[in-house]
TrEMBL record:
It is found in: Cytoplasm. One of its GO terms (cellular component) is cytosol. InterPro entries: Cytidylate_kin (IPR003136), Cytidylate_kinase_dom (IPR011994), P-loop_NTPase (IPR027417). This is Cytidylate kinase. GO terms for biological process: nucleobase-containing small molecule interconversion; pyrimidine nucleotide metabolic process. The lineage of its organism: Bacteria, Bacillati, Actinomycetota, Actinomycetes, Pseudonocardiales.
Length: 242
């Protein structure tokens, strides 16, 4: 039986620190929909690469290794679970070592292709069982779910994003300075926007939403207004693949 209010896929894209993950989880929970954090998938694969001693800069070696990674993720917005095999790696994938290496690993075309196929399977299952899913990342509206009936691209000033990331790190027990976090945000922006395979960019039909001066409740309100404007609650709303 298909449950939940949302019908179809909401594609939520944007750089780090825009509130994307928090908004996506809360949006999915409010709509009784599935939730997929594609960034966590890339981070988990990166963790596996680092653990195996594979050089993240060696694209060929990374591509070969990732073929056999046993990656498992949940789609419950209230109970997020990212695993390598049976091991819970939710905390470790947010560490500094993974943060520094994830852009290099995620830029490997074969890695993106493998994870895209995995993401498609997850999205299809969530749409079949729940009715809809909120998917967040950096290329959802352009590469993963280009037929999504609602694509939102979140932005925010660099200073606002760095402050949010620093506060998040502190809340989760990671030590970081505002200056170091700002430098990392700018580094990730450059790498993600310039990579050849599925660079960070907004889909042509995406709705841009600047979150610099909005709290989470304000961002949610804006997106829920878009959901209702497009009639995505309780009716078959997806186009194309879903």
């Amino acid at each position: 039986m298909v449950e939940g209010e949302l019908r179809g896929v909401i594609a939520l894209d944007g750089p780090s620190g825009t509130g994307k993950s928090t908004v996506a989880r809360r949006l999915a929970a409010q709509l009784s929909a599935g939730y997929l954090d594609t960034g966590a998938m890339f981070r988990a694969v990166t963790l596996a690469v680092l653990r195996a001693g594979v050089d993240p800069a060696d694209a060929a070696a990374v591509a070969r290794f990732v073929e056999d990674v046993d990656l498992r993720v949940s789609t419950d917005p209230l109970d997020q679970d990212t695993r390598l095999g049976d091991e819970d790696v939710n905390a470790e994938i947010r560490g500094n070592a993974v943060t520094l290496a994830v852009s290099a690993v995620s830029a490997v075309p074969r890695v993106r292709e493998l994870l895209k196929l995995h993401q498609w399977r997850i999205i299809e299952e969530a749409c079949s069982t729940r009715g809809g899913i909120v998917v967040e990342g950096r290329d959802i509206g352009t590469a993963i779910a280009p037929d999504s009936p609602l694509k939102v691209f979140l932005t925010a000033s660099t200073d606002a994003r760095a402050l949010r990331r620093t506060n998040q790190d502190a809340a989760e027990g990671r030590v970081s300075s505002l200056d170091a976090t700002r430098a990392d945000v700018e580094r990730r922006d450059g790498l993600d926007s310039s990579r050849a395979a599925s660079p960070l960019q907004a889909a042509e039909d995406a709705v841009w939403l600047d979150t610099t001066d909005l709290d989470i409740a304000g961002v949610l309100e804006r997106i829920l207004d878009l959901v209702d404007e497009r009639g995505l609650r309780g009716v078959a709303a997806s186009r194309g693949r879903w």
